[in-house]
Amino acid sequence: MSSVVLTCGYSYHTQRFHDHYSTGLPCYLFRLQTEGRCEADIAGRRVSLATGDLLMLPPGTVYGLHVGEQNAAEGSIASGDYYLLTVSDWLDDWWGRADRPLLARIDPDEKLLGLWRLMIAEKRRQADESEGGPVSGELIDYLLRTLCLYLERAVTETAAPSAPPPFAVLRLKRFIEENATGRFKIDDAARHAGLSVSRAVHLFKEHVGRTMMDYATEVRLSAALERMKYTSFSLHQIAENCGFGEYSYFHKVFKLRYGTPPGEFRKRIRENESGTNLL
């Protein structure tokens, strides 16, 4: 059976709102708080939810949502969240692979929210008979799998045995990974994470163990290796496309990291592929 998304969307509450499944959820529920705050009852326990709090609840979980109760004294209510209710054979298998937390704190970065928005848009298309069909159902199935795996990684990153890095550091890492091969600047990374440059530099070194530029260089080298192995781009093109700029700088950094010039390294790759041995 392919995945069936029962409902999926974004909600923003400015009035009191309550939802109850006193006999247990009939499906899987994913809910990510992105704005404001609210409260939820999970298996008999009342919890407060703020930005970044993720609920992942399997069928049968007794659940209730309460928006506005803790805001009553303040005179204003604000709570925004992305939600998804679904049933899926694949999800049954995925859920059983590990001990999943019912409540976790993650970084609601733009990639994750973009995936959720794609799911919402495709669900709307599926509901339109003129745009639905087998392709839409298959796409929803794969979007659900991608979203779950992305959530799994996000939960793992913030639930490591050692002290997890702040959300800001995770945002810095994601920004570097996505922009290192372009015109990457530390100022832009710091702004993306909502930090001053000095604070960003300090936090990153403290939690990652290397500077942001060192991390960016590792990302660039990894991208360069892929292009050397799987494309016919010249080494000068690779140096430029991977963010190194001048080939001379790429040559220097590559040799320092791998102990051999990039030209010699690529020659070995091609000789190995042709069945010969350089040594």
From TrEMBL:
Pfam families referenced in this protein's UniProt entry, alphabetically: AraC_binding (PF02311), HTH_18 (PF12833)
Domain of life: Bacteria
Keywords attached to this entry: DNA-binding, Transcription, Transcription regulation
HTH araC/xylS-type domain sequence ranges: 170-268
Protein's name in the database: AraC family transcriptional regulator
